[in-house]
Amino acid sequence: MSEQRKQHITLRLDAHTLSINVPADNEHLYRKAANVLNEKYRSYQRRLQTTSAEQLWVYVALDVAVNLCADAHANRLQPIDEKIKELNNKIIKQLNKE
Cα-flanking dihedrals φ and ψ of residue 16, to 5°? Predict the structure, then answer.
């Protein structure tokens, strides 16, 4: 297995700076993820103006975790949905023959 080339990047998450090495091919994903987190943070900050930064990051983490769980659930159901559509199409074809 060949080792992936690493890229050193610096990300800013609200007032925090994160300096990390990431796979060069995934640099754009890390930057996009940082933008998503910052957007969620600012959204919670606007809605919950008196909440501490630490508490806002907890809300952001929970929000992201819920979205990951929902996506994982949807991905697990996708093959089942496709099979149901296929079976429905077969039933409709059979009914139309009669």
Answer: -100, 140
User: H or E segment at 16?
Assistant: strand 16-23
Tens-digit pLDDT profile for residues 26-71 = 999 999 999 999 999 999 999 998 889 999 999 999 999 999 998 8
Contact yes or no for 44/51 (Cβ under 8 A): yes
Closest CA to 22 of 35, 14, 11, 13: 11
For the whole model, what pTM was predicted? 0.70
- Strand partners of residue 13: 16
Q: What whole-number distance in Å separates Cα of residue 43 and Cα of residue 23?
A: 29
Buried b (16+ CB within 10 A) or exposed e, 32-66: eebeebeebbeebeeeeeeeeeeebbebbeebeee
